[in-house]
Amino acid sequence: MNYNQITYSNLLELSHSDYTLTSGEANIKGWPVKTGENRIGKVADLLFDPEADTVRYVIVLLDEGTTSVEDKKILVPIGLIDLDTNEKQILAPDFHQEQLEAMPRYIMDEVTPEMENHIRKVIGSPAALTMEDEAVEIDRANFYRHHHFDKNIIPQDHRNN
After folding, report:
1. pLDDT value at 12 more than 60
2. Residue 34's closest CA among 92, 74, 81, 99?
3. Which of 61, 80, 103, 104 gives 44 a disulfide partner, CB atoms 3.0 to 4.6 angstroms apart?
4. Using an 8 Å Cβ cutoff, are 83 and 26 in contact?
5. CB 87 within 8 A of CB 52
6. Residue 60 in contact with residue 73, Cβ under 8 Å?
7. Model confidence over 79-101: pLDDT tens digits?
8. Which residue has better confidence, 87 or 125?
């Protein structure tokens, strides 16, 4: 057994991939991210799954003072955000301070299945889900079928251009 081998998820930042936005797809990079009335950061990029041809996460650069860690980027599953095209902002779940602190720091090309499992555990608010995740190993083959990833496209900007 090789205990030191790290397996990375096959996810790419959109800005470092061949993917280009098509007409009608909103370029949300740089948009502020809010939870309730509070701004927590801005969209740094999107994390793209080239095998499934879909976006999996929004990469959020947290504002200074949001956590005790400076320049912290976190991953928010795409299915948890809402797009406010009128205000050009992203609405994220009402994360508690403890959740933001507990979220693992995102580092490009260093997303592992363990990191994704940890994100789900930090976010997974229903008690039953948390208990199930702890009692049964998460099935990686069906990981992205979870409701956190139920939006399988980049959010659409429906304004007339």
Report:
1. yes
2. 92
3. 61
4. yes
5. no
6. yes
7. 999 999 889 999 998 888 899 99
8. 87
